Amino acid sequence: MSILPILIHPDPRLKKLADPVPQVTTDLRALADDMLETMYDAPGIGLAAPQIGVNQRLIVMDCVKAEDATPEPMALFNPEVTWASEDTNVYEEGCLSIPDQYAEVTRPSSVRVKWMDVDGKPHEREFDGLWATCVQHEIDHLNGKLFIDYLSAIKRQMITRKMQKLKREKARM
Fold it and tell me: What phi and psi values does residue 89 have, to the nearest 5 degrees?
């Protein structure tokens, strides 16, 4: 397993619609493992394949935060929201592709999602709380949408300028 480089906004690859996964292969299972290792190392609670430059509909997540709790890593291929509650939650979201920037985003508080697991088996499950926010945030990545797209144009521009500056500073190192 290896830790992969995470793309930083603005990057045109983060704004593309990801391609469906026709079938789960050995290479894609290995990619999911690498993505989980990358996510834990970052540290984060979710990561989408486009964030590491892979234009495939694959996300990984684990919203278990307590240090004494058992991790619940998940890899979801072709995840799709099939139902969303009318009730909403507001979470302060961040993103591994937009480091150290956070903003409140309103999303449905519960969602039902269908996907394929690492063995290609279909699943459907309802997520709520932080899990619901995370799965929606990661599915947004597969559709070329970032959490800052929910913000006002002024806030979005401010964050984008900070990320451009960060990328310039990293390029000088």
Answer: -125, 150
Burial class (CB within 10 angstroms; exposed 0-12, middle 13-18, buried 19+) of 101: buried
Question: How many structural domains is the chain composed of?
Answer: 1
Q: Where are the beta strands (DSSP E) in 5-163?
A: 46-48, 58-61, 74-84, 88-95, 98-108, 110-116, 122-128
Positions marked catalytic: 138
Interior CA angle at 52 toward 27 and 173, to 5°? 130
In a domain, 166, yes or no: yes
**From the CB of residue 169, how many other CB atoms can be counted at a distance below 10 Å?**
9
CA-based nearest residue to 137, from 41, 71, 39, 70: 39
Residue 4 inside a domain? The answer is no
Q: For residue 86, give its domain range.
A: 12-172
Is 60:70 a contact under the CB 8 Å cutoff?
Answer: no
Mean pLDDT (10-residue bins), the chain, 173 residues: 94 98 97 97 97 98 91 97 97 97 97 97 97 98 98 97 93 86
**Letter for the amino acid at 95?**
C
Does some domain include residue 5? no
Angle 134-135-138 from CA coordinates, rounded to 5°: 85
